Amino acid sequence: MFTNKAKILSLTVLSSSLLLAGCGLFGTEKIQKIDPPKSVSVEENAADKDTSAKQKKEENSIMTELYLIDKNGYVVPQTFNLPKTKSVAKQALEYLVVNGPVEEMLPNDFRAVIPEGTELSVDIDKDNGVATVNFSNEFKNYQPEDEMKILQSVTWTLTQFDGVEKVKLKMNGHDLTEMPVNGTPISENLSRETGINFDTEDVVDISNTKPLTVYYIGGEEGSYYYVPVTRRVNLNEKDPIVAAVNELINGPSDNSNLVTGFMPDAKLLEAPKYKDGTVTLNFNKNIYGSSEENVISQNVLESLVLSLTEQEGVEKVAIQVDGKAELKNDQGKKLTEPVTRPEKVNTGSF
């Protein structure tokens, strides 16, 4: 069940969408007698060709996250198979350009973020972990309300690549210290720590808080997706893992279009345990979200893993309930090992 304080979305409906599967079938008609061996041979040959074509396509492509804008204005990762190239970072940004090559691939209600006609280059200094982007003059042709979204999209798209920790922006060869339309300051250390999709609605004193990014659920039935949101948590909260879990349980702001898959009465029974990159969390039974024992929904699991692996040093998440680890997800898969972050986010609807 998704919850957002007063908002509740049926988990049963969502869980059913997690089980979506597709298959191709050959139609047949009994018009004339068909020699069975030949029929099987034709089908096998067709299947072999399909498999070969799929393998060839995969060999010539690379899975890439593009941070696009959804209909509610959130900057959301969507994963695409892009042509294999040596300049993966440059190609990723080129696919963010309005009316560029991404247009025919865009999911419903999503749009590109970089102004139409913008040309760009990307130089990566792996020694310092900095990607420097140089935009053409067309980069300044955007609506003021998109300014922060563009900054976030470029930063999060580039920092998916190995060796890129920070981003530096230029336009026509000149350093950008602020965005060209609304003058938003550009940090010298532009990175994921800068945040994304800021939610400060419930914050009274921002100076007494620190940023923390968690993943909520956006979209609608048949096309749900995970959305990274940066919230402000109290400086007194010493454990960022506990803070992230609490933000997931509490859910997004009331006016948000997002939801959480957690029940509001789920809670940790003890402090998280951390060892060699693995965090172990011990929840009460309300983490299940349904009457079925030992079953944790996949959306809860993935929200946790995505949120916690954004934190430095966290690579895997193990979950217990009342101290026991005999769990399975709602697809029937036993969770015998700690769960790692998926290689890419939002690879398909769920």
Q: What share of residues are in beta strands? A: 25-35%
Please outline the major beta sheet: 4 strands, mixed
Instruction: Tell me the helix content.
Output: 10-25%
Strand order of the largest sheet: 6-7-8-9
- Summing up helix and strand content along with how strands pair, one would put the structural category as alpha+beta
Question: Which spans of ≥5 residues are poorly predicted at pLDDT below 50?
Answer: 5-40
Q: How far apart are the first and last residues' alpha carbons, in Å?
A: 14 Å
| Estimated radius of gyration | 23 Å
**What is the approximate shape?**
globular
Total number of beta strands: 17
**Helix-strand pattern, N to C?**
EEHHEEHEEEHEEEEHEEEHEEE
Question: What number of structural domains do the residues give?
Answer: 2
Mean pLDDT: 86
Keywords:
four-stranded mixed sheet, 6 helices, globular, 350 residues, 17 strands
Quick recap:
The chain has 350 residues and is of the alpha+beta class. It contains 6 helices and 17 strands.
List the helices and strands and how they pair.
Layout lengths: L1 E3 L2 E3 L1 H8 L17 H24 L1 E10 L4 E9 L4 H7 L15 E2 L8 E6 L4 E6 L11 H12 L7 E6 L2 E2 L33 E10 L6 E10 L5 H11 L22 E3 L2 E6 L11 E2 L1 H11 L7 E6 L6 E2 L9 E2 L10
Parallel strand pairs: 7-8, 13-15, 14-16
Antiparallel strand pairs: 1-2, 3-4, 3-5, 6-7, 8-9, 10-11, 12-13, 15-17
Helix pairs in contact: 5-6
Structural overview:
- This is Sporulation protein.
- It holds the Pfam family Germane.
- Keywords: Signal.
- With about 350 residues, this protein is of the alpha+beta class.
- It has 2 domains: about 60-195, no CATH class; about 195-340, no CATH class.
- It has helices at about 10-20, 35-60, 90-95, 145-160, 240-250, 300-310, and strands at about 1-5, 5-10, 60-70, 75-85, 110, 120-125, 130-135, 165-170, 175, 210-220, 225-235, 275, 280-285, 295, 315-320, 330, 340.
- Strands 6-7-8-9 form a 4-stranded mixed β-sheet. A 4-stranded mixed β-sheet has the order 12-13-15-17, covered by helices on one side. Strands 4-3-5 form a 3-stranded antiparallel β-sheet.
- Strand 10 (about 210-220) and strand 11 (about 225-235) form a beta hairpin.
- Helix 5 (about 240-250) runs antiparallel to helix 6 (about 300-310).
- The longest helix is centred in the N-terminal third of the chain and has 24 residues, at about 35-60.
- Mean pLDDT is about 85; it is low at about 5-40.
